[in-house]
Structures are given as structure tokens and as C-alpha cells.
Amino acid sequence: MLYVTFVNTATGANLGVWSWNGIGPWAQVGFTAALAANESVRSVLAANTDLFAVTALITGTGDDTVTTHSLYYFDSTNFVDAGIQDAAIGLPNSVAYDGSNYWFTAGADILTGTTADAIDVDLTAPSAFFGGVTNLAPSAVCAFTTRDGTVYDYNASWSAASSVFENYRDTDYAFGLPAYVDYGTKQALLVPTRVYPRSSSDVSPAGGYLEFDAFGFNAATAEANENYDLVADAINFSISLDGLSVRSIVAFNNDTLFALTDGNGLWSDHFSAGSWSGWRRE
């Protein structure tokens, strides 16, 4: 089943979540309680066969505008309260499941819970502005990226932060939504770098992505693989994604990768017969 959010391009009105089974017509997915007048669906996220919907509620005007966020899970019929309602948190933009807990990144906040209907803010999380999270399956380790060029991991407890990763001009990267791929002989954590304005005088550089050997990954001691040979090779990387602002990388079935860039299209990389094809623009 495919789930997407739609917006009316003519009016800007949010049309909610719709599903498609690959055969019949699209069907709208409802909420058990009607959304508020100024509440709109921003995204759908999935982990551990569970589907979540993220909404934003905007109240006030001008300098008094306030945006809060809510999280709902799909109970196979409707979207139901997942435990986060009208919360003063960042927009939940990614989710992972470590075998016991769900983990969401939401700006400066981390959300977690053991079941889809009991998600709450993790008050033990490090102080950082997070870019995304991925689970290094089949382990219970989750890797979290930040907008400050660091990485954390959670494995029963929070790790210390990694060192700050920089480009060749010693400018700190900002990381987007990461991906993990295990293709049998190697395991790779791919961390996209993107142009991100941390302040008016601090804009992070574009560098494609950093890759890490994910076997036994420990953020506190992690070092990027400068050979870029885990899912491509150095030449392919240099003529494809190197120097681009990459918003996110997504892995499917441990043999297909997609990289979504800011303004330079969608790229893919495929594993077959023991090797990766290298990045190619779609």
C-alpha cells in the first residue's frame, strides 16, 4: 500500500493523507478526531510496519504566530493520537525502530516510545538540532545526525557526540536524513551533507555525503571513509554527488539507494551481482 499527502496547488489547501493499493482509485485516510481549522498534515513516516502522520497547527498572527506539532499513528482504519498533541517541538521529520523503541527526530527534540500509541519527548536526549535518524539493523543501534556536523548513536543509552565533521576549508557540515544499507559483505551508514543556514553568518557547505563503516558503529569514535568505496567508488562519487547539497538518502531492500538533492535532482545507486552501479541521475 502506498500512502502520500496531497496539496491543492491552486489554493494551497492541504488535502490530507491518501492511500493507493496499486489497482483501484485513491482513497482518503481519515482521523478519528477532526483536525483543527488551522491544522494540516505535513508528512507521513513509517517504521516497523507502522505508519505515522505528522501535523502542524498554526495559531496567532504576525510576530505572535505559534506552530505546534502532533503525531498520529494508523490503526489500520484511521489515524489515532500517538501521544504527541499540539506540542511545542520541531517538525518530526524521520523515524526509526530499534527492535524495542521508536525514535523520531523533531528539530531540537527526540521523541520515543515502545508502542506506536505512547510516543513522548525523550528528556535524556543530547542538546542538538537533529537532522535525522536510522536504525543499523539488525542491531539495536540507532544513528542520529545533527545540523552541527556531529553524529550520535543510541544503544541502550546515548553515546557521546562524534567529532565535528568539516569540509576541506574547515567549515562544519550540516547533516540531513541518513540511510543504512547492509549488502552482506559490508554495512554502510550514509550521512548526507546539505547547505543549511545555521545563522545569517553561518551557512553549512555542500559535500554530497559522508560514509561510515557501520559494523560495530560507535559515534564517539567514528571516522568517515575517505575512500568512498562502500556503495560506489571515489571517481563515481566525485562526478556525481560530491559538492551537492543532499537532503536525504533512502535505502530499499539493501540493494537500492536514492539521494534527494536540493536543486540537482534525484540520484540512484543499485547493487547487483556483487557490486554497486554507482550514482546516476534519474
Describe the protein in words.
This protein is mainly beta and 282 residues long. The protein folds into two domains: 114 residues; 157 residues, YVTN repeat-like/Quinoprotein amine dehydrogenase (Methylamine Dehydrogenase, Chain H, 7 Propeller). It has one helix and 24 strands. Strands 20, 21, 22, 23 and 24 form a five-stranded antiparallel beta sheet that branches. Strand 20 and strand 21 form a beta hairpin. The relative contact order is 0.08.
In short:
This protein has two domains: about 1-115; about 125-280, Methylamine Dehydrogenase, Chain H (7 Propeller). With about 280 residues, the chain is an all-beta fold. The chain has one helix at about 235-240, and strands at about 1-5, 15-20, 25-30, 40-45, 50-60, 65-75, 80-85, 95, 100-105, 110-115, 120, 130-135, 140-145, 150-155, 180, 185-190, 195-200, 200-205, 210-215, 245-250, 255-260, 265-270, 275, 280.
Q: What does the secondary structure layout of this molecule look like, with pairings?
A:
Blueprint: E1 2-7, E2 14-20, E3 27-29, E4 39-47, E5 50-59, E6 66-74, E7 79-87, E8 94-97, E9 102-106, E10 109-113, E11 120-121, E12 130-135, E13 142-146, E14 151-154, E15 179-182, E16 187-192, E17 197-199, E18 202-203, E19 209-213, H1 234-238, E20 246-252, E21 256-261, E22 266-272, E23 275-276, E24 280-281
Antiparallel strand pairs: 1-2, 2-3, 4-5, 5-6, 6-7, 8-9, 9-10, 10-11, 12-13, 13-14, 15-16, 16-19, 17-18, 20-21, 21-22, 22-23, 22-24
H/E series: EEEEEEEEEEEEEEEEEEEHEEEEE
CATH superfamily of the largest domain: YVTN repeat-like/Quinoprotein amine dehydrogenase
How much β-strand is present in the residues?
Answer: over 45%
Euclidean distance between termini CA atoms: 24 Å
Q: Calculate Rg over CA atoms.
A: 19 Å
Mean pLDDT: 94
- Second CATH tier, the architecture of the largest domain: 7 Propeller
Q: Give the CATH topology of the largest domain.
A: Methylamine Dehydrogenase, Chain H
Helix content: under 10%
Main beta-sheet annotation? 5 strands, antiparallel
Low-pLDDT stretches are none
CATH class of the largest domain: Mainly Beta
Structural class: mainly beta
Number of alpha- plus pi-helical segments: 1
The general outline is globular
Q: List how many beta strands DSSP finds.
A: 24
Total of domains:
2
